[in-house]
Structures
1.
Amino acid sequence: MIDTEGGARTWHKTACILCSQNCGIEVELEGRHLAKIRGDKAHPASQGYACEKAQRLDYYQNASGRLTSPLRRRADGTFEEIDWDTAIREIAAKLAHVRDTHGGDTIFYYGGGGQGNHLGGAYSRATRAALGSIYSSNALAQEKTGEFWVDGQLYGKPRCHTSGDFEHAEVALFIGKNPWQSHGLPRARVVLKELAGDPARALIVIDPRRTETAAMADHHLQVRPGGDPFVLAALLAVLVQEDLVDHDFLRDRTTGFETIKEALVAISIADYAARAGVPEAQVREVARRIARAKGGVATYEDLGVQQAPHSTLNSYLEKLLYLVTGNFAKRGAMNIHSHIAPLVGGSAKDYTTPVGGHRIIGGMVPCNVIADEILSDHPKRFRAMLVESANPAHSLAESARMRAAFEALELTVVIDVAMTETARLADYVLPAASQFEKWEATFFNLEFPNNVFQLRAPLLPPLEGTLGEPEIHRRLVRALGALRDEDLTELHAAAATGRAALAPAFFAASARNPMLGKLAPVVLLEVLGPTLPPGAAATAALWGAAHLCAMSFAASVKRAGFDGVGPALGEQLFDAMLSERSGVTFTIDDYEETWRRIETKDKRIRLAVPELLGELATLPAEPAGPSDLAFPFVLSAGERRSSTANTIFRDPAWRKKDAAGALRMSPIDAARLGIVDGGRARVTTKAGSVIATVELTETLQAGHASLPNGLGVDYADASGNTAVHGIAPNELTSSGDRDWIAGTPWHKHVPARIEAV
Ligand SMILES: Nc1nc2c(c(=O)[nH]1)N[C@H]1C(S)=C(S)[C@@H](COP(=O)(O)OP(=O)(O)OC[C@H]3O[C@@H](n4cnc5c(=O)[nH]c(N)nc54)[C@H](O)[C@@H]3O)O[C@H]1N2
Ligand SMILES: Nc1nc2c(c(=O)[nH]1)N[C@H]1C(S)=C(S)[C@@H](COP(=O)(O)OP(=O)(O)OC[C@H]3O[C@@H](n4cnc5c(=O)[nH]c(N)nc54)[C@H](O)[C@@H]3O)O[C@H]1N2
Ligand code: SF4
Ligand SMILES: [Mo]
């Protein structure tokens, strides 16, 4: 694990944790520093690829101000260090008090993983079970839940999540997505260059900004901000009105085409293109190019539409584009992928939030209503919150209101590596070992046909005073009295004879005592953990995940080279995960798998979604232009740049480019307002006002401005001086601005006023 070769060069395998790709990397250590970093050629998905950000990982690992002791808030708001036993005992007692007084359902859980750490979060399920906490959420409920809801309507369940086969696609379509900077697919820049460089293929981008990706595209539909439902509906209207749809696919595989056709034939393509701010001829050309693709069309919708008005409608229209052209369940197109752990909760029936009755999609409470669910006198309001690997006081809309919500809670516990904006509002802060100091794994396994999983071994021992999340949850569960030694006697005996005996023993024991099943991650940590290779106890929860994966996707796991019948298949997969440091290809799918994964009863895709067709019909009546003349700009609050990585880095020194985190705007607007490049401007929205450094760029159209994401966090340098760097975008956003179906925020569409300072 640790370089003891007396100066000899040793490269250790791990992954970059800065975006959901988790490219495999190799690291050379110097003491506790990540001194040299390169892409890992043996990683089956990234194949040696890594972007420039990975080089900066030491700014995460060795940030000053890493937490090294549990902290308890004093009455005056300052914190005092306490020991772990005291912290666990007091937190367990206080959480139990909330549970016993108001019900475990008033204890809300948020987070469970950022871009690369999800193994720890798996253990939180045990703590939540011990508390009877049923409501939870994470960042996906401010980006993807609308899309998940549409997946549920079309394919039967929100967990029927699709991914695009961009590597093989003839046509790639990115909507509100800038993969050159944000990635979202393996080896993004290589794949984009291949697409752009091949005259037989086409790269299409829908974005109001001339992004790096748009600049290399064959077709850039430069919509006005928020113009997406118009341009997407116009593209669909061309396909229907020029009869470019795939009739065989629609007849054999779908229902409801006549209903959507009726809505689409009525659309005036010229009007909708004009409303979208895009030439009609370009809309027709792009629709025809999509229809012509025999080699597959792959699409990716991301924050530019998922965090803007009509976001769920946009998700629907995006999916209809590839469905009416039959680009589903085939090479180069869209397919339903396998997983190690599901991205979306599966079987739970539709339920709603206790206070506001808001729809909970895939088990996640909409982020934008969390403050409302706290700031209420409803008896079932959220009264305590456990936050893990997330910074919601910074990352959720309307930070001022989130701060008020945290202050109103009876108890907040934060598990993090740093003193974050959220930790500062907590009653207790628990210091976690970093992602390079413990076993970690990525659960964004979204690829098709080959899906990859990497379990990472620690590069370093935990920083003194910190613990990994699995152990934190184990201690909480024990302190809550939810698990007693005598509950485990039989399981310990079974585990001692080998893993083969443990599975049936575990099922039998949890049939007798259902609580054992609910506490599974911690139970496995205690009984299976000690039998695993030295130091690897924290991987125990993966054993269950490997078995579930092998049962759910047996044919694909076998195609990936594993054999064995029944539990033997899962055992092999688990062994491979434990031993393959560069990651394993755990499933290889054929295109028929997509049809097997559809969860509608008749295995047909249900094209007509009445709620969204209703919303589509309201578009023509929508006023054009700003709804409030006091705020004539559209501010995109949270752009991904080369120098952003959510709030994973707090030290501003990592940012070599765009040091100020500039407000980008068009020279046309700047000239009109008397603002100069590098000067300062005041940005005001209905939620707040900030002063930002300005960067003028032709890539933005007049009336549109953008701020980067992940900035505006404070950092104390080595000499102890604390400063906030850049603008925290959610000082400017409002939680009420959200989608009517999914509650997803409109971060990319904040009405704003900009003035010279
Ligand atoms: N470098 C870097 N990469 C990251 C991250 C990071 O912090 N930094 N974060 C990761 C995370 S958590 C995520 S979710 C992804 C997000 O990845 P992306 O969604 O690609 O990121 P954004 O830059 O937020 O938004 C994408 C685009 O939406 C455009 N946009 C704004 N308004 C509109 C609109 O009205 N319509 C359309 N069509 N487009 C619009 C913006 O101009 C922008 O180019 O990135 C991941 N990758
Ligand atoms: N206005 C606006 N708001 C946005 C966005 C936007 O574009 N605009 N984007 C949204 C999106 S897409 C996302 S994904 C969210 C991201 O926001 P969050 O989900 O809140 O996550 P991160 O900023 O990634 O912060 C991760 C936290 O994990 C901590 N951490 C790092 N390693 C570990 C570890 O090993 N253990 C523990 N316990 N903690 C660790 C870090 O210190 C940090 O506090 O922001 C959202 N907010
Ligand atoms: S930031 Fe994302 S794309 Fe870049 S190296 Fe890290 S994981 Fe890979
Ligand atoms: Mo995200």
2.
Amino acid sequence: MYPLLEINLGKIYQNARYIVKFCESKNIDVAFVVKGFNAIPEVVNLISQSGCKYIADSRIEHIKKLVKNNINSKFMLLRIPMLSEIKDLVKYVNISLNSEIKTLIEIEKECLIQNKEHNVILMYDVGDLREGIFEDEELIQTALYIEKNLKKVKLYGIGTNVGCYGGVVPTKENIGKLEKVAIQIEEKIGRKLNIISGGATTSLTLLIKDEMPKKINNLRIGEGMILGRDLKDLWGYDIKEIHKDAFILKAQVVEVKQKPSKPIGKLFVDAFGKIPEFKDYGIRKRALLAIGKADFVFCDQLIPRLQGIKILGGSSDHLILDINDCKEDIQVGDILEFEICYGPMLYLTNSSCVRKVFV
Ligand SMILES: *Cc1c(COP(=O)(O)O)cnc(C)c1O
């Protein structure tokens, strides 16, 4: 049954072990972020045995699913909690990232009802402009507020995130701001913070360069462990030990034909309201695959494994390839393989039309 997504558990485990050991050697513990593959329990179960300290996800539904699957780990919620999910938060999550006193007070109330404690990491926005408190004085005051006024909500640490919305590069200067404010908070509360979390996969670049500020003791790693593509393709830091092909997409050819490379007739908009552009390369051999944007959204983030194949585009249910320069004799019924980037991984793992096969 095709299309299918082949998930190589051995490779993922090796990736996870490598990242844990690498970070350990720099005195950093790891929260593995599993939202990128929709927290498939079989995969998370394996990752949870890699020596990482936490399993993290931005969606509480994923964490609930993992708890129900008896995954043995501490769970961290990455997205600032909604007021409407506080009950589940206290019930299922050990640690959450936060930035609003209003929300913290609601968590405290729910903790009193459930008679449970909840750990929070206060987020500091050093410039990427997604979540977090922007002014350092406000961060310090919020930390002190938790420490002094809340009983069941514990100030576990502080953290920051860069590179996700604004695309800001982690540097020893901006992550250094987190270190500086951590020192100030520790002086004021008279104890060490458990966690000072210095970012996501992109922050691995600071570890590689040995430029990570010393007090940072945690990173939240998703892509760099699962695929390792961004560090190599975008940042120019190839960690050779990381398998980039733990997820392989396999789809079936349903049509092979010679066709012109430029559509015939007056061109208007495609299925998604975009006006497409074409160059005329003459008659070319093409293959049509039974999978489409409904499954992976981004055609240009699939990487064909066969040489000489070019992705031309797709519609919701078709992927169109130029196979003119491919040495293989591709036929109807053949299965073609693709490596995938983060975007397609996110959608493919969530598509009910794509079978998941573990190897
Ligand atoms: C998604 C996310 C991460 C992990 O990002 P990767 O680039 O996949 O490592 C870390 N922290 C937060 C807050 C996130 O939302």
3.
Amino acid sequence: MNLRDKYIMEKFNIDENVLNYCNKVEEEIKDKFEKIDQITEYNQLKVLAAMQKNRLSDTHFASTTGYGYNDLGRDTLEQVYADVFNTEDALVRPQIISGTHALTVALAGNLRPGDEILSPVGVPYDTLQGVIGIREEKGSLKEYGISYRQVDLLPDGSFDFEGIKNALNDKTKLVTIQRSKGYEYRESFSVEKIGTLIKFIKDLRPDVICMVDNCYGEFVDYKEPSDVGADLIVGSLIKNPGGGLAPIGGYIAGKKEYVENAAVRLTSPGLGKEVGATLGVIPSFFQGLFNAPQVVGGSVKGAVFLSKLFEGLGFGVLPTPDEKRADIVQCVQMGSAENVIAFCCGIQKGAPVDSFVAPEPWDMPGYDCPVIMAAGAFVQGSSIELSADAPIKPPYNVFFQGGLSWHHAKIGIMIGLQTMVDRKLIKL
Ligand SMILES: *Cc1c(COP(=O)(O)O)cnc(C)c1O
């Protein structure tokens, strides 16, 4: 037995059956890893080229305070993001406190009373429902006279083009497309599919703003939604593009006019992008972006590994190991609350931070059942770091994502599986 395997068994209490099964699965997905590596390399070069083009220099790593006028680092970072995502402009700020906030700013900045939002891909992410006013919340867009319309996916998961055509009307100002599945048991949309949907909408209504919630999708594929016609893409820096190093932040990239509309909402009318001190975080934004393709590649490998591992044990998995990836999220239908809890406890045990605590389901605000969340992250709530969440209700889906490296994702998953074996929930 090699030193690595011996260490895994001794230090992390992995038994021989689990070790052998995991090693066998790892061997079987080698060819998929090669394809992932090619995407990683492409995206690494894309980020490198953007930094070189913008003559990134250590003068850009200086910190600003107060109003933050003439923050060269911030302005250069935004130009680098715009180049990476092939957009006219970008807003990348520590004052954007999360993905939900970035989406809120993009929506509120670009919509006016009387306008309508259309989601052609079914119900949006839980927190967005409160922002739009699908779920009553104080301060929702609905309170400002902005209406919402939704077209569900067809039973086979495809776009309802006829329904979308009928839903577009004189009030429709913005179409929101969520790339990742979120907590829904549906496919995450490939960039190619998103391109098809945007083209369909633009052919009918070229004036409508097409916005993509790009959370969990960045650097998973060669292209981004902004390469295939999206007017705005929006995401969180404590997910993919922060590369695990950004301690906070969000981005909005796209057409200059729409980014500007978001900027005057984030700061103030008349101020826009010109203000916003960066308080020393800019180096971590640059370095995180530089690392992001590598980190995302490791996360995708972990997702494929988990998918293959549990498919082989007879569990329902989405996506399957052979499907093309559109985001870093892997869903496994665990079938029972005990399985979910055991797996999540294992993921927690494998974390670098808080490995000694056990996660428990709790009644989180905004959910209709208890939710369990396993995460031991350097940045609180960061889900580009190894994490697993699950609403405790049938069919007991676990949503797994992240891992700052493939090797960490692998050991986390192994401990998750071992915990299920130890609790006699599955037999290998
Ligand atoms: C995470 C996520 C969000 C919200 O991001 P937060 O940073 O948690 O507010 C929105 N949409 C999708 C698809 C996400 O995965």
4.
Amino acid sequence: MAPMTDRKLSARSLGLSVLSFIASISTASAKIASTGLSVNFNDVDYYISPFSSGKVDFKAKDLSKVPTVLGFKPVTVVQGGVSQKDVSKLLTTWTETDDVYQEGFAEAVFLAESKGKKPRNIIAPRHKGPAKPDSTSIITTKNTDIPSGPYFLEVSTGSLYPVYRLYEDFAGSFVESLIPTPDGKFQVMSAQTSGSASLTIGVPSRLYFTKTEKKPLAGVRIGIKDIYRLAGVKGSNGNRAWYNLYPAANYTGPAVQRLIDAGAQIVGLQKTSQFANGESATADWVDYHAPFNPRGDGYSDTSSSSAGAGASVAAYEWLDIALGSDTGGSVRGPAGVQGLFGNRPSHNLVSLDNVMPLSPTLDTPGFLVRDPEIWEAANAALYGKNYKSLAGAKGKKVKYPKKITTYQFPTNANTPVQKLLLEFADNLAKFVGGTVTASNLTNDWVSTAPAEAGGLPLNQFLNTTYATLITKEQIELVREPFYRDYAAANDGRRPFVNPVPLSRWAYGDSVGNDVLQEAYRAKATFMSWFNSKILPGVADENQCSDSLFLYTQSQGGQNPRNRYRNAPGVPFGFSAGRISVFAEVPDVVFPLGEVSSFSEISKHEEVYPVAVSIMAAKGCDGLLTKLAQDLVAAGIVKVPKAGGTLAGGKVLMRRGLEGVHDHQ
Ligand SMILES: *[C@@H]1O[C@H](CO)[C@@H](O)[C@H](O)[C@H]1NC(C)=O
Ligand SMILES: *[C@@H]1O[C@H](CO)[C@@H](O)[C@H](O)[C@H]1NC(C)=O
Ligand SMILES: *[C@@H]1O[C@H](CO)[C@@H](O)[C@H](O)[C@H]1NC(C)=O
């Protein structure tokens, strides 16, 4: 792939090219490169990649009727030995299945020769479908390397450039919009569509990509939390001083690289609460504005730290999945309040090299996603050999555990939330042919705790464990080198840090190494107790887990972002959400539905997501993803849509004047 020549720069960059030309006379060292071009085509904003997909031969007269902008013409490539009579039908399908493709690209079609069969050259066949205008030119081409789809053809060179459609990040969920470069790095996507203080995200046509066994994520559009380093891209960890201090990463960490190798298309880096510590909108998010939760009245907190991941997948149909991370709930929280599937995986399934740590002892990379099929493929790609998939072929037949355990679940179905949770547990039990048992971990601990626990109740034994691990480890691995590097570069100064990480780190500074060692021991003690007494694995790999362990993830609360809050504290205590953190077991979120409540912001009833968390024995991640697929197939769980509600619909903050005009 070759970069565009500077002769074909956009109007916007033309001034720069002239200046550089003058400079090059005197210095002979000027460097200039296209960063792409943006165009508006039939009222849709597009970005033309600066990296060519290949060349085609044509005669100028073949394309004389096709419009030109700055030396480019919109065209279509059709591969795969499609016969001329089927082209029209195919292009109609494309307009329905790909948000980037539009009828306008069909004015000129490059039809690749199939082996042996050569379509007749340049004719304008009669056709019925709407996707192909009467003036269509069909040109045969021998080039079979260029994927099917829409392109902009550089008339002067015959080079075809891929097309991205531009979308506004109205939920404020991204920090940088990216495209891949031919050398395996990333660079900024340089176009901007209209939006109010929003970034623009570009997504490539889905038609360029074909899923294969080696590329199960081909064309899957993904956002990446801004703690994973990408080659060629500066990261922030939610901190502006960090962004400015450090250079772009020189390599992509192995976790994200696996997704790229599987064909995933990274469209941008997404907001994290600072240093992946939990923060509340709007008070705590000082360096960057918190993303917006599209559900309900549009002003509920997104939960954090994978806040951009949750907001974007809940808001945008054009985004398939997001990679977040979960140390103490940073995937599960955003998945719950935004009505998405999400997973905290078993600990240590894949290296987190070149990812900012909160606590390596507890950090895990996980996804937020609407479609469980994509979830399964993404898990298999990210966790590799450590992922025991139970989906599909290879002679494996899942055998679900018949024991369903609930923890801190409602005891009666008086409210719509309780009803949703209890109905789900019942339906699940029926589905697996088993029974539901309510558990009381506090009591179980009292009766079976190991001697190392010293007779302490669970909430005292583990009270400071999480707070100690995340602060002591992050202070050493992140804060200390950051403060040192920043001071060295800025005459001894301190960088700005948000109140939440500062208050947590202050706790870490206040306790000694003995407390840290004690925290390691407490975590290990709890893990071995829980994983043997409460949620053990089983030898049969088609079942994997002795039981399924359920707790409440999200209860349809509002948590409005326009509240003045107390000063941030330290995350002491023990709760259901800490179990998987310490026990290293997979903990996934399923959206169950929505409940209605009155919003003091919209002065209207709005609906908010209810979600359950389900844990299985350590290493049984594949069992839970398979369960999501099977419960969707059985109609027990619904695939959530992007939009204002789980059934889709406009996001409240995006509602326009259509309704007003209708009533005038
Ligand atoms: C990235 O840069 C660091 C620091 O300069 C260097 O030690 C490392 O070898 C580089 N890694 C790669 C993959 O280029
Ligand atoms: C567990 O049992 C204790 C003591 O019997 C009780 O105080 C507590 O509320 C119970 N917890 C749950 C989650 O049922
Ligand atoms: C947890 O630790 C904090 C800080 O030491 C303390 O204030 C709180 O009372 C403790 N809670 C329990 C349940 O032990």
